[in-house]
Structures are given as structure tokens and as C-alpha cells.
Amino acid sequence: VAAAIGETDSTDTSKSVDVTDVSHGSTDTGSADAPTTSENERDTVTDVSHDTIETDTGSADSPTTSDSEIHTLTDVSDGSETTSEPSFCGAEQFLSSTHIIDGFHVLCVSWNKQDSLLLDLDIFVDGTTVFKSRARKNIPASWEVLRKELEEYLLLEHLSASHPPNKYPWRMYTSDGILIMSLEQALEAKLVFVFQGGLFIWPGISIGHNTTIQNLNGIGSITMTTVSMQPLVFEMKNFLTPEECAHIQTVASPNLRPSPVTKMDYDRDKQDTYWRTSHTWFMPSEGDTVMENIDQRVEHLTKIHKSHQELVQVLRYELGQRYSAHHDYFPPEHYQSDVNKHIMRMIDNGRRNRIITVFWYLSDVESGGETVFPRAGGKPEVKDYNNCDEGLKVKPQLGKVIMFYSMKPNAQFDPYSLHGACPVKEGTKWAANKWVWTTPFSMTNY
Fold first, then answer.
1. Backbone phi and psi for residue 311, each to the nearest 5 degrees, phi listed first
2. Fewer CB near the last or first residue (10 Å), C or N of the chain?
3. Are 431 and 359 in contact (CB under 8 A)?
4. Is there a contact between 82 and 134 (Cβ–Cβ < 8 Å)?
5. Closest C-alpha among 215, 171, 226 to residue 59
6. At how many degrees (to 10) do helices 289-302 and 242-252 cross?
7. How many CB atoms lie within 10 A of CB 316?
């Protein structure tokens, strides 16, 4: 359903469909350093709100919801009042008519007009209009009661700082990413996003949907286009200036080394080049004004504080170089051997992981070098991890970025986020990426 990305890419749409589980034998390695997060850091979320957004429905084709998606909808029916009337907060503009978004809920909240001691709630479950998953309620006007009501109705768990692996305390946000911490904030916002996984994720809504994000550091506003719903992938042109791209290439060039791979337990005997043949350097931001500005811009984009970011990984792909399809997250079950103890420490035995990849294109490429998502649109497990003929393909373009999510709003890994780098056929591909974690990321040897 999702057409190939890029002005001149004419990939057959039958090969570019939009979204299940492939455990490929490698994970993009990240730096040789790993994060350390103290107990009180694990669930820290810093308010990184940055003004407002505007949305537009766009006109691209939309994917069909599969039976497997339909069956994932949680039955939360409890006899509450249901209605087909429009919401009182405009929630519908953030709901998908094509996909069920597990763990993402939209809430309208306001004072009851007849009783000042009550709140009116209008709850839309799993961010969708696919089903009439909606209820209206009246509850006592209390922050504690509101949270309890949402926990009971949406089956949200009350988790402490020492939460179990792959589970995170749920949170509420405004539609532009401001963390909501009180009833007063919720009432002021009127429209509230609820994320089971606790971190803000932009609603994709539908393929071709455009969201305008205002006041990004250094560049002002930018249009973010949904290019895939499954996995969730956005594209933004001119996120980086030509001068910034040139600066990164100049600084990184003398420091590049063959790209490493973090291997799963069953792939320890394979060489890194089995999967990856590019060159890499992790470029520090501290003391580099250009990089510090971009880090701040990524924070404004993701709505997650820059303390969650790894150093930027700068990449150079020359003729024929590629990276086999892989995931950016670390499944704990595949890093249990003694040689991978450092990975388990890095992910705190599954209590933290990468959630977002912001991938930067630092150059045009004459031919090849696309980023491919082979399972986009619900495609089955792949057999050839070097195949660039299936799925969504994103064409490199100077200054463009894509942002995709390795975890879903319910804090579970998204196996559809499998992606790779197609071989460069002509020219040189310069790129870079920022990985954003679920918790603050501190660099230390491990």
C-alpha cells in the first residue's frame, strides 16, 4: 500500500506495502559504550514540550487492517454510555481509520456542566475508529480517581520504579507531547493522549498524513509525513541543513572504522561483515555547537529529553556496501550467554531499550543505498535478509530524515521495524542516526 519514497523512485506498489516477527541474528550495535541508569532515573520523563502541531489527513493510500490486528483489541466494554456523536475535544483527528494502535488511547476530559464536582470523560480505545471502542463516563473530579478509572477501564497496570522487563509506567500527554502530571493540566489540555508504555509516540493516523511541528531548534517548522503505519515510519525533508551535513562528514571522515555488529547468542561465530560492510564513527556532541543544536532538535522532534539519546552514529557506504535487515532493539532472550552479559547490563535485563531511530541522510546517492523495511505493510517473516525488492524503500536525500519506532505504544517490541541498507550502486552514501532509549542514557565502559 505504501509507495516507495523519493521523487524518482518508481518501485512497484505491490512491493511497497505497509507491515511480523523476525529474529535476525544481529542488532545494530550502538557505541562501544553502554548506558547506565540509576534506579531513580528509570522512569524519569522530562517535559520537552515545544509549542503546537497542526495535522492534515493527506491523501495517500491506506493499508487494510488484518485479522491478526483486529483480534488484538482488548475488550473493555463495561456498559458505559456509548455514542456516535462527535467528541467534545476533537479527538477524531488523531484516530486511525485503518489500524488499531495497541496501548495508545485518546481521552477528552472536562468539567460536568450540571455538577461541578464531576468530570466528563470521552474515551477512545487503541487510537482507532475501526471499532466503536469508545465510552463516555462521569467520575468525581479528582486526579487520583481519574488515574484509577483509566487503569481499570483501559487495563493499565500500576507499576513502580522497579517495573518488570518490557513494562513501563503509563503516562498522559497533551497532543503536542507535554507530560501531564495533574488534573489541572488535563483539564487545560482537554484532549489527552494516554500511552501504556509511558513515552510519547506521534500518532501516524494514516499513510500520507502530514503533521506540522512548530519551532524545531534551528529550522523552525517542519512537515512530518507518515510513510508507514506498520512499522510506524515518518519522513521529514530539510531536517538538516547542507552546512550541517557537510560539517558531520568533515569531522567524521578521519575517524571512520569498519562498522561493528552486536551479535545474538546463536551468531557469535559469524564475522561482522556477514551482515554489515559500511564504516562508522560515534561522533561526540559535547563542545560541538552544530551537534548540540541537532541534539536539541531531535529532542523537540521526539518529545523525549536528549538525555535519552546515544551519540550520533555516522555512516559511510561506498560502492556495493550494505547492511542486512536487522532490528535496532535488543531482545533479552537472545543475549543470555556469558559473552553477552554486557548487553544484558546495558538493557538492565530488559527494563530499558531503544524505542526510536532518527535516521539522517547526509548526502544524495546516484543509485541504490535505500533504507528498506522488508516487512512493511504486514509482510511475513523474511527468508533473505539482503533482499531489497520487497517492502518500503526510502531513497536517500540530502538533509532528509526518517523517524521510526522500534517499540509500540504498549511498550512491546515491533518486529515489523526490521530494516536494512540496500547496496550502493553508484556514488557514496553518507548517513547518520540517533538512537533514543526508554530511559536516560549515560556513556560508560561495560
1. -60, 150
2. C
3. yes
4. yes
5. 226
6. 120
7. 22
Strands, sheet with 210-216, edge to edge from the N-terminal-most edge strand: 53-56, 210-216, 220-229, 232-236, 401-405, 354-361, 429-437, 312-317, 279-283, 257-258
Amino acid at 182: S
Strand partners, 136: 81, 122
| Complete edge-to-edge strand list for the sheet that includes strand 371-373 | 323-326, 419-421, 371-373, 392-394
- Looking from the CA of 64 toward its CB, the CA atoms found within 13 Å total 3
Q: Rounded to whole angstroms, how far apart are CA atoms 410 and 430?
A: 34
At position 32, the amino acid (one-letter code) is A
Q: In terms of residues, how long is the chain?
A: 446
How far apart, in whole angstroms, are the C-alpha atoms of residue 77 and residue 193? Answer: 20
Phi, psi (deg, nearest 5) at residue 356: -130, 140
Residues 193 and 109: their CA atoms lie apart, in Å, by: 11
Q: Which of 394, 320, 392, 404 is nearest to 28 (CA)?
A: 404
Please say whether the beta carbons of 413 and 406 come within 8 A. yes
Q: What is the pLDDT along the chain (446 residues), one digit of tens a residue?
A: 232 233 333 333 333 322 222 333 455 554 433 333 333 343 444 444 444 344 444 433 333 333 333 223 333 344 445 557 899 999 999 999 999 999 999 999 999 999 999 999 999 999 998 776 899 999 999 999 999 999 999 999 988 767 777 789 999 999 999 999 999 999 999 999 999 999 999 999 999 999 999 999 999 999 999 999 999 999 999 999 999 999 999 999 999 999 988 888 888 888 878 889 999 999 999 999 999 999 999 999 999 999 999 999 999 999 999 999 999 999 999 999 999 999 999 999 999 999 999 999 999 999 999 999 999 999 999 999 999 999 999 999 999 999 999 999 999 999 999 999 999 999 999 999 999 999 998 866 44
Nearest to 129 by CA among 203, 20, 224: 203
> Which residues make Cβ contacts (< 8 Å) with residue 38, sequence separation at least 6?
none
For residues 432 and 281, what is the distance between their CA atoms, to the nearest angstrom?
Answer: 9
Instruction: Work out the number of other CB atoms within 10 angstroms of the CB of residue 257.
Output: 9
**Helix (H), strand (E) at residue 192:** strand 191-195
3-class DSSP state for residue 392? strand
